[in-house]
Amino acid sequence: MQQPTGAGFQPVSPISLVDHPGTQANSARTSASSVVFCDFDGPIVDVSERYYRTYQTGLRAVQTKGSGPPLRVQALPKEQFWRMKRSRVEDGEIAVRSGLPESIVETFLQQVTRMVNHAHLLQWDRPQPTARASLALLKRHQVRLVLVTLRHPRQVEDFLSAHGLAAYVSEVYGVSDIMAAHANRVAQKVDLLKHAISQQSEFSTAAAWMIGDTEADIIAGQQAGLSTAALTCGTRSRSHLQTLHPTALHETLLAAVQAIIHQAQVKAA
Ligand SMILES: [Mg+2]
Question: What InterPro entries has UniProt attached to this entry (predicted)?
Answer without folding.
Answer: HAD-like_hydrolase_sf, HAD-like_sf, HAD_2, HAD_sf, PGP-like_dom2
